[in-house]
Input
Amino acid sequence: MTVSSTDLIHHAYTPPPGFVAPQPGVFKASTVFFPNVAAMRDFEWKDKSAYTYGLHGTPTTYMLEERLCTLEGGLQCLLVPSGLAAIATVSLALLNSGDEVLIPDNVYGPNKALAEGELMHWGISHQFYDALNPHDLAAKISPKTRLVWLEAAGSVTLEFPDLLEQVRICHAAGVLCALDNTWGAGLAFAPFDLQPGSKTPLAVDISIHALTKYPNGGGDVLMGSVITRDEALHMRLKLCHMRLGLGVAANDVEAVLRGLPSLKLRYAAHDEATRALAHWCQTRAEFAQVLHPALANSPGHRHWQVLCTGEPGSAAGLFSVMFKPEYSQTQVDAFCDGLKLFEIGYSWGGPVSLVMPYALDSMRPAWPEHLARGTLVRFSIGLEAVEDLRADLAAALAAMA
Ligand SMILES: *Cc1c(COP(=O)(O)O)cnc(C)c1O
Output
């Protein structure tokens, strides 16, 4: 007689408890067993006191949520399958037909696309405000405004807004503000810094984070988080999250949990190398402008200085250059193709340096006054040796000319 399939499923052995190792165990489940019917009926879904279904939390997801709250200074966290899903969860949870959402003009592109697509189809209007002019934000807030998106620094063009003033304006108007905190990663500045007497009492209502970038750090996982400090607001978001069925895979959560211990060291290393390369680019004649919030003449530099410490570890690994108009798109493309260490690819936060040309005139209704004319290329600096990256840039510039 061979073994019964029942014995293979309902096995008597359980390993001894007390296994402790550097990385937490990974719990995977759709189904979760209840000890009895009463426990099933009593289940409290609002907190992390028990388990009901894989979609609604496992020890693995609870652990990452709590660690991310510590990172960003929040109290409640939701995990979603991508950074963009975090943006969508916030907009879908908080906006109804007839409402309006305000979005910075330099926002992460897909946030804009969601507003122009589904949100518009559902009768939710949007306006873009000048990220560098808080008066413009204040003027655009109306009785219809239900949500203001904030982003620091802006995607691609890296302007650093007066975040403190933007948040003050939103709160004075009684409008919720949600920050896309992917660039700051919880490290460059504290989005929920509520300590009395702190240098920057910034207090956004919601912080979303593309964990895809620095927290994971490998360029191989997509995930996002939505963090709050207000229980009622969290519940609105959590109910929408539940109804949409947004879940994350345990192995992906494990990858982010493995990334977190080295997050601060990696972020500082990306930052240091990026500043060195941005400074070097400023010495090159090919560029009309170098965009990085720590550079004195970069748009919004003084706001970055107020909020961030200035030390390594207070800026991310991104900078952009504006090639002078005398360089054709073909030449700029050849420069990107000529790089050997920089790969051509979207996203950032991983070990490999990336380059991407952007067509700014298709991203903005008009060319922003604070940007030089030319062709924009964005770099994401990885963890390679900075001398090698500098030599690669120099060789590709020489080959282009
Ligand atoms: C990458 C990114 C996102 C989206 O993250 P995904 O996980 O790629 O969906 C959102 N905001 C910013 C600023 C980003 O850079």
Observations:
- The CA atoms of residues 72 and 110 lie 23 Å apart.
- The two ends are 79 Å apart (CA to CA).
